[in-house]
Design a protein that fits this description.
The complex is a heterodimer of chains A (293) and B (311). Chain A has 12 helices and no strands. Chain A is mainly α and 293 residues long. Chain B has 311 residues and is an all-alpha fold. Classes of the chains: A mainly alpha (293), B mainly alpha (311). Chains A and B meet through helix 1, helix 5, helix 6, helix 10 and helix 11 of A and helix 1, helix 7, helix 8, helix 9 and helix 11 of B. Chain A: It comes from Muricoccus nepalensis.
Chain lengths: 293, 311
């Protein structure tokens, strides 16, 4: 798209008076939910009552507690008698792993390209900008669909592919900030002292733009979760026997009328997680970096 | 202005060339289409004949040039599945997709923009908080979840509307709602922040200080300035009229371009996927070009200074 939107957004509303207030309640709740999700992801093996692929053929499509089910399968079971809670726990781990991996990849890629553009200017910069335009001009889902199905699908490839989503935003930010840092005293000063470009960018420019980057990463994180779950929902993302949140929704869709719980559990987790990250991201942005607004 | 136009046009063309190259490289180098179409244990003669027929034996750059030349002739190859021209297959799906995305676009614009402006003008009021809450919810609920929940409520529980397929307008209601709600939320959020930013600018204060009434200041100075960032995102929405319904079409088994794409990708039908990629890229790039021109109209400063000044 164009720089105009970004710059218009960067021409900030007046800095608001900063109150040292307590955390707003929604943010506390969101942080609590995210902590829970992280815990679940880390301790997935300890927490899940059954292996996520284990069949319990005597309890197929058994409803969750509260809809007439037993505590044995607290969130019910699916058509094959697999425990929904265990699958949910494994899915949370998978989806978070993918989201973290992809966010990290796109941030590193974007920042590197942005710095390269800012450092070399000229042709390199034009090439990076053309790539940025290309990336911003295509709906990423379409690109991802094409790549995925034609390269076949494996987990590392899938993560790398999602890592290509949104790098152009980091590149734009990193380039813009690095260029303006170049005209500020500190970058010129360390350069004058004989620091290598690696040192200038890695040790001096990067820390100075870190808060902006962290905020953009938080804002991009829910997008990756939605993308992953969307692709998995279409059957083109994480492949069985592995499972992810979107995968579970896609599977549960077949049983929408008979066993809606299969689909509702992962759907709620997706919604709550993206909602929480967005809330925290918005709050961070307001606190750390109002220029992104 | 001419220079501005030329630069934009060149960029648009470059993007298209990149898309074609991307499509070609990714789709052609990723695997042997012959083995995929014919299955791995097909007799070698059949594979050889297939490769010959589709020109898969030639060096890759020849295939690439041929592909480019074919595109200029409007020939995007045939579907490897049923041998019909890919363009035809895709073209016959376009009306179905537009039947969903056009009403959804109207819904996004009709709800999102007014809601965003209202929220900005009544900042921190109850209405503002409600709009923002709904907007965040609309942004964080993925379309397939929203669609399935709507199906669960309106088709399964209440039985008011059909859950999928495409026979009459009733079948379109749920998919259009699904698309429209999510988009309206994004647009409302975006419009609100664009508007808030403008309201804090010095020229608004100047206008009010010299005695311009509030409503007139908003109309004359606020809205036009807030329109600039909003136009960008609306342009993106217009550009994705053809591609924006991939997931929703799948949820509602709606026979549009998106469903075709998913099926073609699952079948590794090269020609059809390339054709859709190119179609989507062209709509997207044209929409962006129009947006750039609109910038010129909306903001005279941009006519003189194309990129460097703003970057």
């Amino acid at each position: 798209m164009s720089d105009v939107s970004f710059d218009a957004a960067a021409a900030v509303s007046a800095p608001r008076t900063r109150r040292r207030a307590r955390l707003p309640v929604p943010v506390v709740l969101a942080l609590g939910w995210l902590a829970l999700m992280l815990l679940v992801a880390v301790a997935a093996d300890l927490l899940s009552p059954f292996p996520y692929t284990a069949l319990d053929l005597r309890n197929r499509l058994s409803p969750p507690v509260g809809m007439g089910g037993a505590w044995l399968h607290a969130l019910g079971t699916d058509e094959l008698g697999r425990d929904v809670l265990s699958r949910l726990i494994t899915s949370i781990r998978m989806s978070l792993l993918i989201a973290f991996g992809a966010t990290a990849i796109s941030a590193v890629l974007g920042v590197t390209l942005g710095f390269l553009a800012a450092h070399f200017r000229g042709l390199v910069e034009q090439a990076v900008l053309a790539l940025v335009d290309f990336q911003a001009a295509m709906p990423f889902l379409i690109l991802a669909l094409a790549v995925l199905a034609f390269f076949g699908n494996s987990l590392p490839l899938f993560i790398c592919l999602l890592g290509l989503n949104g790098w152009e935003r980091y590149a734009r930010i990193a380039r813009g900030l690095a260029v303006s840092a170049g005209s500020q005293g500190y970058a010129a000063a360390v350069k004058g002292l004989g620091a290598s470009p690696w040192r200038v960018y890695g040790r001096h420019v990067l820390p100075n733009i870190a808060s902006t980057l962290i905020v953009s990463m938080t804002l991009a994180f829910p997008e990756i979760i939605l993308l992953e779950s969307g692709l998995s929902f279409l059957g083109l993302g994480v492949q069985p026997p592995m499972t992810s949140l979107g995968n579970m929704v896609g599977y549960g869709r077949e049983y929408l009328t008979r066993a809606p719980w299969i689909l509702l559990a992962p759907s709620s987790v997706i919604v709550l997680t993206t909602l929480s990250v967005s809330l925290v991201g918005d709050w961070l942005r307001d606190r750390l970096d109002p220029t992104l607004r | 202005m001419l220079r501005f136009l030329g630069l934009r046009l060149a960029r648009a063309l470059l993007t298209l060339v990149l898309v074609v190259t991307f499509a070609f490289v990714v789709l052609r180098l990723s695997g042997d289409p012959a083995l995929l179409i014919l299955s791995a244990d097909a007799p070698p003669e059949a594979v050889a004949a297939f490769r010959q027929a589709w020109g898969l034996n030639d060096p890759i750059w020849q295939q690439y040039l041929r592909y480019f030349a074919a595109i200029f002739r409007g020939d995007l190859g045939q579907s490897m599945r049923d041998g019909r021209p890919a363009v035809e297959l895709v073209a016959e799906r376009i009306p179905a997709t537009l039947a969903l995305t056009l009403p959804a676009l109207l819904m996004k614009l009709g709800i999102g923009i007014p809601a965003g402006i209202y929220a900005a003008l009544h900042r921190n009021s109850f209405a503002d908080r409600a709009v923002m809450l709904l907007a965040v919810a609309g942004f964080t609920v993925p379309s397939f979840v929203l669609g399935l929940v709507l199906v669960l409520v309106f088709a399964v529980q209440l039985g008011w509307l059909p859950s999928g397929g495409q026979e009459n307008w009733r079948h379109a209601v749920l998919p259009v709602l699904t698309l429209g709600i999510g988009g309206a939320a994004v647009l409302a959020r975006f419009t609100r922040s664009a508007m808030l930013e403008v309201l804090g600018q010095p020229y608004m204060r100047t206008a009010l200080a010299k005695g311009v009434p509030w409503a007139r200041a908003v109309r004359r100075h606020g809205l036009p300035n807030a329109a600039i960032p909003t136009v960008t995102i609306v342009g993106f929405m217009v550009g994705s009229l053809l591609a924006g319904a991939v997931v929703v079409e799948s949820v509602f088994s709606w026979p549009g371009v998106g469903r075709l794409l998913v099926v073609a990708v699952a079948n590794r039908d090269l020609a059809v996927v390339q054709c859709i990629l190119l179609l989507v890229a062209t709509t997207m790039v044209s929409a962006n070009l129009v947006v750039d021109l609109l910038y010129g109209v909306l903001d005279p400063r941009l006519r003189a200074a194309p990129r460097e000044a703003t970057a």
